[in-house]
Amino acid sequence: MPDARLTAQLPHTLSSTDFPTLGQKYQGKVRDTYAQGDRLVLITTDRLSAFDHVLTTLPFKGDLLNTLAHFWFQKTAHVVKNHVLDMPDPCVIVGRRAEPFKVEFVVRGYLTGSLWRDYEAGRDPYALALPPGMKKDQKFDRALLTPSTKAPIGEHDEPMSEQAVVDRGLLSSRDWARAKEAALGLFAEGQQQSARHGMILVDTKYEFGLIGQELVVIDEMHTPDSSRFWIAEGSQERFDRGEPQQMLDKENLRQWLIQERGFSGQGTPPPIPDEVRVMLADKYLSAFERITGQQFKLEVGDVRARLEKNLRAAKLL
Ligand SMILES: Nc1ncnc2c1ncn2[C@@H]1O[C@H](COP(=O)(O)OP(=O)(O)OP(=O)(O)O)[C@@H](O)[C@H]1O
Ligand SMILES: [Mg+2]
Fold it and tell me: What's the pTM?
């Protein structure tokens, strides 16, 4: 049974923010980003997106995601520098503003999700030339990169091969090479640390940028929005029996949309019932607590009021 506080928080979720004095606002699907010179104030709202549509909000999602990303940025800072300066509120990161690369770095350890759907349909958009006869959720011998463009708002990201990223001039071969190395290094670190907590980091997405000549990882890291997480216990047995994995990530939502509503991104998205919102919030909570080994304080109440108070205390408002 999900914690009753998840249901109690349903009417208080943070769907949008409006802080004109905080800086120039850019509204992404999940985050509201305010630019102040060379700094960004990144507010992770409770908005939930899938297949590039914002569908609803989830109780505590912004706090859970942002606090988890902050945890991971700290845990991986020895591998690659990141944009984090401060976390003045559970759902806010103040970061250094970077010149973002136009490419998203998706790293995958397993054949699952959209890559499985491509493979099954005989598509190879990343020119991976995977061998025939692989099974759903099969582990790769080593992690693979499946890059895609960062599409402007309202458009879908475009998958492409490593070669195409450089050929099309999206990144110089030097920037590609160093970001690839960084992505694989972060992923290896994420997998090792997750394994210590009984979790499998299946795949994830990184965004990188430059501050001067320095490569930094920006945006979020190793959250259930940007990554797949499976519970390690029983995972091999499930795979051997051809059963689905126990997932603690957004794939739960994608599966629900596909199976229960026949929605995979085209047309108008269906409404999301409260039971499903609570079920998903429970997955995010569970992912947070397993990965960090820490209990998350669920404080039911108005997120906006708390946020404003903390931004003022940090002299950001
Ligand atoms: N340090 C940083 N410097 C510059 N941009 C950043 C930094 N960190 C994150 N961003 C950008 O801020 C935005 C975060 O918002 P969010 O994740 O909600 O957007 P999104 O919906 O994923 O993508 P889109 O940009 O297509 O709306 C992303 O566009 C991300 O690239
Ligand atoms: Mg994003």
Answer: 0.96
